[in-house]
Amino acid sequence: MRHAIIPSIRYEDAPAAILFLCDAFGFLPHAVYADEDDQQIVHHAQLVRDGNMVMLGSAMPGEAQERYGWVTPEEAGGVTSSVYVVIEDVDGHCERARAQGATIIDEPHDNDGYPGRGYSARDPEGHIWSFGSYDPFAPIEDA
Q: In the chain, what are the domain boundaries?
């Protein structure tokens, strides 16, 4: 199945974000299009994990930022969105993320009122990532 909804995030330091997301959260680079003259500017990047994708790029002033009104969590003074990723080993994934410098804002726990286990983390630029074993696409079992 081809996934048709893909989160897209802007980072002040996109190259560092790519390294962090790969090291801490287990993503793999699929495509990275950096500026030819300035490798610190990422025009577009695609990271994959378990057949899913997130896209990201550098937060830069200019026409696109003005048109869309993009702001970073720091500029907004808080969370601008969150991304949920289905994983199997919630506790092990959390420890990996913590070891790589993620700020754990919600320790691994059993979900309240629905199946599965999860945790949430803040990346170095303030974006919120939630990881859990609850798969909303899994068939719902009759109670």
A: 8-132
**Residue 32: closest CA among 40, 24, 70, 71:** 40
CA distance 61 to 3: 30
Mean pLDDT on 88-96 = 98
d(CA 27, CA 46): 10
pLDDT-derived band at 143 (thresholds 50, 70, 90) equals very low
As a whole number of angstroms, the distance between CA 76 and CA 78 comes to: 5
CATH architecture of residue range(s) 8-132? Roll (3.10)
Tokens at 136, concatenated: 């909303």
CB atoms within 10 A of CB 17: 23
Which tens digits make up the pLDDT trace of 3-30?
Answer: 678 999 999 999 999 999 999 999 999 9
